[in-house]
Specification:
430 residues, alpha+beta, six-stranded mixed β-sheet, three-stranded antiparallel β-sheet, rod-shaped
């Protein structure tokens, strides 16, 4: 209980049971634990949360929060510096802590702590006292551990983490789950009390924080956020998840999310980069560069509770449908997809070149097979060298030479005949 309150700061016994002891028969075990912690001065209950029960009627539950001593004890148990723990949220708890309660609900919906069987302490001897007192109901797969969560985390646009300056913001919750291939996820819980423009402005301030640089020990400029959290591993800035908690109709919720996306487009869209011109299409291919922008995903608390964080419940700003978180955080239209298309185009081009070369080789081989040696000079004869050539004929050169030689011989013979006749006529005349 103490560790859970150290993370979420304020919660009802029902929420605490869901977070750490969902296998117990009822909330009395948790209530008793809170009372024991109160008796030693580590927790207190100064306010109540009002909600709607299963019957639809309003119900209220006591809220429990840490005292200063409890906060220090929880910091030691969580192995966190006291400066990272935030405050006791006593005043927020006194006022009902409407937003903090929804943050706790969101963390519980992310964790989906499995209900493990418990063995009740037998206070009276009774038969069949062993084992759980009720059948356990399964929950969908969760994400991360309670120790991986921080709440009310300062993100200084100016100033420092301990004394953030003007324009800074506080993340409602931050999840680090490197064991789940999720180095860091910033979570914003939206109760529907702020206009879309204010929500969109949070995305702008997230981007300003992510863009901020400081000098490291070597004097090199590094991104401030990277001094606390690991890089997401997919390039670009860490992702931000919005969880909408207000019970409204699908159309109203869709309109709100779309308006937030429209107003914050420049901070999550990425820049289109033109690639190579594609022949015979009149268009050029390209990709989106997501360096320097904020990946934003969104879902509702109801869907998160029902399907868990690993269900296909996330809508990525700029994507067309709901996806599982890993797919929603991916960038299918970035340079990787373009490079794959480029490789496919180059492979197709190389295949076309190879096919052209094969056809040319086949044609060359057929041409070679169609040749024969000239019976006169021995050179190769191509059937296309002249009309009417048949296999075994002389080459056109030899044929022409033979024809010239025959013509010359015929001409010489004719000339001799003419000379002979002129000589006979001359003898007769004499």
């Amino acid at each position: 209980m103490l560790l859970a309150l150290g993370v979420v700061k304020v919660a009802s016994v029902t929420q605490l049971r869901q977070l750490v002891l969902p296998g117990t028969a009822d909330v009395q075990t948790v209530r008793n634990a809170c009372k024991d912690l109160r008796d030693v001065g580590l927790v207190e209950s100064v306010g109540k949360a009002t909600g709607t029960g299963l019957s639809g009627r309003p119900v209220s539950e006591q809220l429990w929060n840490l005292t200063p001593a409890g906060l220090a004890t929880a910091a030691a148990e969580l192995d966190r510096p006291p400066g990272e723990m935030g405050g006791t949220v006593r005043e927020a708890a006194r006022a009902g802590a409407a937003h903090a309660v929804k943050v706790t609900d969101t963390i519980d919906a992310f964790l989906q702590s499995p209900p493990e069987p418990t063995k009740p302490v037998v206070r009276r001897v009774r038969p069949h006292a062993d084992g759980p007192t009720r059948p356990l109901t399964g929950r969908p797969p969760g994400l991360g551990t309670l120790h991986g969560w921080h709440t009310e985390v300062a993100l200084p646009v100016t100033g420092t983490f301990t004394t953030p300056g003007r324009g800074s913001l506080r993340a409602d919750a931050v999840l680090t789950a490197p064991e789940e291939d999720l180095p860091v996820l910033f979570v914003e819980v939206d109760n529907g009390t702020e206009p879309p423009a204010r929500v969109a402005d949070k995305i702008a301030r997230y981007r300003r924080f992510f863009q901020r640089t400081v000098k490291d020990q070597c004097g090199q400029q590094v991104l401030l956020w990277s001094t606390l959290w690991q890089a997401p591993g997919r390039g670009g800035f860490p992702p931000v998840a919005f969880v909408f908690t207000k019970q409204v109709g699908p159309k109203a919720l869709h309109a709100r999310i779309q308006e937030v996306a429209r107003l914050s487009g420049e901070h999550w869209q990425g820049m289109w980069c033109h690639g190579r011109y594609i022949e015979n299409t009149g268009q050029s291919d390209g990709y989106r560069d997501y360096e320097g922008v904020v990946p934003v995903v969104a879902t509702t608390l109801d869907r998160l509770r029902q399907h868990g964080p690993q269900g296909a419940i996330w809508w990525r700003f700029g994507h067309s449908s709901s996806q599982v978180l890993t797919d929603a955080l991916d960038n299918p239209d970035d340079h990787r997809a373009y490079n794959r298309r480029e490789e496919q185009r180059l492979a197709a081009q190389r295949a076309a070149w190879a096919e052209d070369a094969r056809r040319e080789e086949d044609e060359y081989q057929r041409w070679q097979a169609s040749l024969w040696h000239c019976p006169t000079c021995g050179d190769d004869v191509d059937p296309d060298d002249g009309p009417g050539l048949a296999r075994g004929d002389e080459c056109p050169s030899c044929s022409a030479q033979r024809e010239r030689s025959e013509a010359e011989q015929a001409e010489a013979e004719a000339e001799r005949e003419r000379e002979r006749r002129r000589g006979l006529l001359g003898w007769l005349r004499g």
